Amino acid sequence: MRRIPLLLAGLALAAGIATVPHLLASRASATGDFVHFESAHVHPACLTPGGDRLLVVNTPDNRLSVFDVSHGPPGRPNRVAEIPVGLEPVSVAALSDSEAWVVNQLSDDVSIVNLNTLHVRATLRVGDEPADVVFAGNPLRAYVSVSQLDLVRVIDPATLATSAVIPIDGRMPRALARSPRGGRVYVTVLDAGNRSSVLSMAEAGDSLPPPSPPKSSSLPAAPKVGLIIRQLPNIGWVDETGRQWSAKAQYFLFDTDIAEIATASNSVSRTFGDLSTVNLALAVSPADSTVALTGTEARNLTRFEPNLRGHLVDTRLALVAQAGTAALINLNPAIDYSVTPGPQAEKDSAIGNPTGAAWSADGQRLYVTALADNRLVVLTAAGAVRGRAATVPGPTGVVVDDARQRLYVVGRFHNEIQTLSTRDFSQLGRTGIGFDPTPDAIVNGRKFFYGGFTSGHGDQACATCHVHGDFDNIAWDLGNPQGAMAPKPPGQIDPALQGFHPMKGPMTTQSLRGMANEGPMHWRGDRSGANNPGGSALDEDADFKRFIVAFDGLLGRGAPISGPDMQRFTDFILQVTYPPNPNRGLNNALVGDQLAGRNLYFGRNTDIIENCNGCHVLNPSAGFFGTDGLMSIEGEPQEFKIPHLRNAYQKVGMFGMPKVAFFRDGDATSLGTQVRGFGFLHDGSVDTLFRFHAAVAFLQGPLSPGGFSQDPATNARQRHQVEAFMLAFDSNVAPIVGQQVTVAANTGGDAAARVDLLEARAAAGECDLVVHAFFGTRVFGFLYEPSTGMFLPDTRHGVKLTDRALRALRRTGPLTFTAVPPQSGRRIALDRDLDGVLDGDE
Q1: Residues whose CB falls within 8 Å of the CB of residue 801, separated by 6 or more in sequence, listed in order
Q2: DSSP state letter for 841
Q3: Does the pLDDT at position 496 exceed 80?
Q4: For residue 95, which of 129, 47, 165 has the smallest C-alpha distance?
Q5: Tell me, what's the pLDDT at 671?
Q6: Which residues share a beta bridge with 101?
Q7: What's the pTM value of the predicted model, to 2 decimals?
Q8: Taking the CB of the first residue and of the last residue of the chain, which one, N or C, has fewer CB atoms within 10 A?
Q9: Residue 461's closest CA among 394, 376, 398?
Q10: Strand, helix or coil at 404?
């Protein structure tokens, strides 16, 4: 009887082993099977050490494509394999000609790929949202950046054991590079900031600098607002006029743009700051170890939209020598920002969103991809621009093949590889990375988010501040003293408010994820196209299209984009969604303080009017994750929309602020060095949720009989509990989505237990469970059917397998189990192009 499972499995294999699926190239239509996370490439391609194979991540199809570049036409690499890996792969690095590591951002792991057998031999869990991997040191180790945990994990590639964990003093460590001899590893911090922070309206008081331009005489008095300030070395905290505010901001900000790790000690040996606000690409010269960093420097200390129109950031290249000196190079020196919009010549040469960088082998050339402009920039070792070449749409990375005098550019928008000549930068050819299941609405609308053509000089776009669809972790004051009052908001609570004043004060950049079903947009809800009283009916399509004015008013385009193009942009951006919350258990259960906090959240009144859920509505089945689109006053001089809470966990890192009247406790004792200068509330002026819940509105008393306890110890415990719940708030997809495990003949009981967990969460409806089995040169797909406990094969000639039978296949070859978003399992496991013909039969 013990032979039956293997016999059944053998039948399934025999039915399809002779048929190799053709290389699909069509795009699936939008059928609800594709969840759009807009994960950003970091190092999406590399050559193997021998130089014969090009490895490229196929992010939308969750695969690694392997190309032979040693044979065939020079402009068309020969794709020899497409290997299923984890969800949302963003980086790949080759350990040897026989092994590659693929970093899967959504799966929180690394797929370790055997390049000889063309299968995943192991899956290594590393932490929430890993971004990149390099190999360095003696003995050789893998270094993996884990962005949401603000650390780099050091791993023995032989045993896959973690040998060190290196904290990084910055928010979201991302791109990695190594020195030529491997003695140093460099890591960028994506949201490094620029030493800017914010004073609350209470701290700023009535001492704000006079507005420039001056306030229009037709406007009523401006509301009280906060003030953005910046910390200057040896000077202190100042505003845009140079006025000192150090007495109010009694803390210090890290500004880590690059951290240098000594591989001998696995510790941070040096940090380099004041390079950029948002740091993107990183590369180290093989000739002299010069570190090249591309990024953007925010001008958020400057107040008001008219002063920022067309010039929100400067696009930079930083060249850091081994001595520690840094040269900062403006990549757009020809742009005259005093005239907006600029002439077409500026746009034709602009460099925006520089996402990829690579050096030539001799260190004499640096190649940079400009995502905003579909352009490759060629620079000298000193950073002088020597040429530009057109690329495929959405260039996110470049690989140098000096031996063949070629460059390979990854095109994200159409999932393709472009081959350029290094002699004259002419195009030698283009080829698809692999099958692309991305719905047409996403493909057609993405360019309006990233494209420099939407701005006045060609170097800025919505993605400049809404980095990769998320935020930049800073605040901006985009008010307009010469603007006009906007109409009253829908569902306004306080009749005394006369609509929206154009001098709105600092507002933190909001994420563009998960905007569907969230009601009027912007912090104040002043982007409302539906004007539905009380938020009783939501029309996020109409609401988002109100942002069309930003293309001229903020980006300085000279005119908005067309109505049909705005609709394409809207169709794209409203599909971007949030990833799982990493603070919840994989079984989606809350524990300890999280559970106690949830009970308080839904329990008695915790402010003057109602409980937390009374305003911040949590109802995932209705699409509400902390808001239902209504407005709120919350003791502010302006009306604000009740914000959602899905990304509260991303905003930690500010742990100190002076005591102000808004709060009743005086526990502002942690005024040391901060990772972030902006925290919670619309302007980022509150450092922690724990302190936010010390506001007078939550004080138990005659006005709020159900508020937090008056007993100090109980009060603190209750606030910590609600904070713990809010940091583990529900998201659009369950915590299990993306999680994987690879089982093989030698894996132990922990892998079996993880498979049990994946099956249980699939049965609960939180995910679909797919399996990829690797046997010979064929990849077999299976989809778990919770109602029967059976696994469906990817060929009509196959048979359903029991759980026991499928797991027994590990003796023949490795199996990788993956929890994928609900409704996507059939596409990912059985029918990639959803044409009705199973993959094993094509």
Answers
A1: 5, 8, 9, 12, 782, 790, 791, 793
A2: G
A3: no
A4: 47
A5: 57
A6: 93, 112
A7: 0.94
A8: N
A9: 394
A10: helix
